[in-house]
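Database export, one record per block. Field names are fixed; values are copied verbatim from the stored entry.
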Amino acid sequence: MKINIFNELDIDLSNYEKTLKKVFKPIKDKKNINLILTSDERIHTLNKTFRNVDRPTDVLSFINDEDKDSNGDIFISIPKMKRQAVEYGHSEDREISFLAVHGYLHLIGFDHENEEDEKIMNYETERILSLAKLERKKE
């Protein structure tokens, strides 16, 4: 799978780019994805426009029906990701990877609208992250 990463911020995010490419490397998918690393303000606008939710979020996924070679676009708020990494007590690499994989799974049909679907999606997320040695810290 080809990963296209777009940095919309005026900061160096190359360390995250390396991590994200490593996370998706074992996934065998012929379609590519676009990862857009963005601000709280931009993701807030997207969340309000497309989901009618008037607040920033951590990750949003949009299927791209017009490009047969693409699964779609995943927007990740870098400031929110950094706050969540501190809040959850794990690395920024773990958090950005979790958000990217979560977004990717939405693009390919996973959801968490009910408890059973959430268990399945969480299992698949953790399975992919474990391949990149980014497991959740044991308590």
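Remark 1: The mean pLDDT is 94.
Remark 2: Residues 3-131 form a domain with the Collagenase (Catalytic Domain) fold (CATH 3.40.390.30).
End of record.
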